[in-house]
Each structure stands twice: as C-alpha cells, then as structure tokens.
Amino acid sequence: SDVREVLSAAYLLSLVRQVARGMEFLASKRIVHRDLAARNILLLTKQQVKIADLGLSRDAYEEGLYRKTTGGRLPVRWMAVESLSHFTYSPMSDVWSFGVLMWEVMTLGAVPYPGVNNHKVLQYLLHST
C-alpha cells in the first residue's frame, strides 16, 4: 500500500505532539536543543518517539539566552531568524525549529525551503512574502 495511506495526518500529528511534549520537558529543565529536526527524532515503536542528539543543547538561562561564539556547521534550514542573524538561541528559537520539524513530518520528509541555497536562507526568510 502507498505510504501516504499508512501515515495518516492523525498519526503524524500524534508523533509531533510527542515531540512538543519532549521539548516542553527540555525547556522545563532549562535546556535549549538548538538542533531540533526530524533527523534527530527516534521512532522507538509505531507509537513512541524520543528526541535525540542533544550534542548542541545548552542551558539557555545562564544569561537569558545562549550565544554561539565558536565556528562549526549549523542546521540553517531549521534555525530561527535570530539564530541565523545573531547566533542567539532561546526556547523560542526551538519553537521555530519545531515548526520546521512539523513541516518536515507533514510533508513526509521534504527538505525545508526547497530551491533556496543554504547561504540564502536568512535573506529568504527576511524578504519572502
């Protein structure tokens, strides 16, 4: 059978709801994930997901928000505007990433902002209508 028949909207929403609950838990522990994306969600069973790859996570409340000061590759298609422009991260930047993750899930894994070069994502977000 077609994968779209098996993966109903209700099922997909139940998965992203679990991610939202997991992100709520992380926020309650003062953790900003900073790399929330479908690639970092583990499907343990048909009905249970877990958030993985906390390698970029930080305590955002040491100074109110976390500012990235070192080099390294960044998941630009999942980053909030303030993270792309000022390298600052907060629970709200994780909310942005969660929105992108929801889009990924509901489109069954499509790449965010198709046709936009990674180096142009910020301009696209600032100037698209």
UniProtKB/TrEMBL annotation:
Keywords: ATP-binding, Kinase, Membrane, Nucleotide-binding, Transferase, Tyrosine-protein kinase
Catalyzed reactions per annotation: L-tyrosyl-[protein] + ATP = O-phospho-L-tyrosyl-[protein] + ADP + H(+)
GO process annotations (BP): cell development; cell surface receptor protein tyrosine kinase signaling pathway; neuron differentiation; positive regulation of cellular component organization; regulation of developmental process
GO molecular function: ATP binding; transmembrane receptor protein tyrosine kinase activity
Family matches, as SUPFAM superfamilies: Protein kinase-like (PK-like)
PROSITE patterns documented for this protein: PROTEIN_KINASE_DOM (PS50011), PROTEIN_KINASE_TYR (PS00109)
Stored Pfam families: PK_Tyr_Ser-Thr
Every Protein kinase domain range: 1-129
GO CC annotations, alphabetized: endomembrane system; plasma membrane; receptor complex
Superkingdom to which the source organism belongs: Eukaryota
Stored InterPro entries: Kinase-like_dom_sf, Prot_kinase_dom, RTK, Ser-Thr/Tyr_kinase_cat_dom, Tyr_kinase_AS, Tyr_kinase_cat_dom
Subcellular location: Endomembrane system
UniProt name for this protein: Putative catalytic domain of protein tyrosine kinase
Originating species: Ixodes ricinus
